[in-house]
Amino acid sequence: MIGVELSAYRKQAGLTLAELATETGITKPKLGHMESGRYQQHPDDIAAVLRACGADGRAVDRLASLSGRGDSKSWWAPWAHVVPDWFKTFVGLEGLAESEFTYQPMALPGLMQTEEYAQAITAATGFVRGNHNERFVSFRLARSQRVTEAASLNLHAVIGEAALRLAVGSREIRRAQYEYLVELAERPNITLQVLRPECGPHDAGGTGQFVVLSFSEARPIAYVEHLDGAIYVQDPDDVPAYTLVADNLQHVALEPAESVGFIKALMSET
Predict the structure, then answer these.
(1) How far is 60 from 65, CA to CA, in rounded Å?
(2) Are residues 100 and 169 in the same domain?
(3) One domain, residues 105 and 46
(4) What is the pTM of this model?
């Protein structure tokens, strides 16, 4: 996140890396590493770069403060051997985020799954080795505690009807999952909307699932997951496309109260 910010300020100032090196006395290769995030950036270097780019004192204090977060212990360390590197990056960013928007057309968000549902869908997908299933599920539950117990993340989820109707596990597991979603929707830091085909066309028709993370100390980042990796959209010129799609989905989907009513109707079907 810091690297993206530094790059954005440099480009706004119209400076090349070579010109910035001259202004700051920091070598061009080191500046390149600072922008790429290859190495942890130090507060003094961050301040020197930002001042050379004409940033105000608030931006300097904000990013210098953010650099100290890199020394904090990762909560997911006990699960490091079952979580791929590209997803470790995501949960690290999620841990710093103030709010998260997620669009999931075909599967329920991991943050909102019950333990039994998570076990059933993990076992069915085949992406996790059989002897790692239990550990992966425990990781998913630990991750969700930030939303359910700590309530330190504001979560807005738009879920496709297909995700709710997906035949995961037994009827009892699905009914318990529906009950859990209704419970989550009552929490002040969680907003849940259901997107049905009857809601009509929307801007995410060709995008598939995506996440937008917003931070108090940095610019938003969009996250798009693939089968064996992910793309982090960080350029300030590209992220707004995802936030606009997120706004459109919120407008098109059922209102939160209607969404809860729809989930309760699914409960009666099971």
Answers:
(1) 8
(2) yes
(3) no
(4) 0.78
